Give the backbone structure.
Amino acid sequence: MSEDLYAKICRILEKKQLSISGISRELKAEGFDEHRLILTGYLRALRDMHKLNEVEIPPSKIYVCVEGSETLDNDIYSLMAKHLHALDPDARFPAAVCILSSIFERPVFKEELKMMGINDSHIRNYRRSLLIVKETTGKDIRDLRRSITRIRVPDPDPAYESDKYSATDEFIALKGSVLIALTKDMSDLSGLIPKTKQVTLI
């Protein structure tokens, strides 16, 4: 199972309660196709770990996110996946490469893109009119791959980098919106943001 499966399930269940069949359909729509029995076992393991609640509604079991549970949302890949999901699908790949390569100061590997919910379809169909992204080449890529110790990057995994000079104003605005959302997620802003919207005085 991919490392971002838990994050995907949490996003799916964020605003709704679903049966195993419903979760399976949603995962397939995002490019994750796993056998139902394996998915069932995984969901029950999450239940046993108190990450999900299982509610019996005959003839189905419904799964609900446990409020306040610790999720993968504290890692950069899951945070990115959460906010990239709000973008047009054809903009997700260039946004992911541009933002993460800026943060990590290196090219981004395909394995990392998968952890952010970016699949082959996103890579094939991305909007080149927003930003040009190319595969990184050269022998240094092998050493770069080995230097990453937090996650496992497969040996043949390609890496991608963006041509920052090709970025359009539209892309810069998209990138800015994701970065602002990331900053809010990674910072304690309590007491700084008003609870009610500011009223414009006439």
Observations:
- The longest strand covers residues 52-57.
- Strands lie at 18-19, 52-57, 60-65, 108-109, 132-135, 159-163.
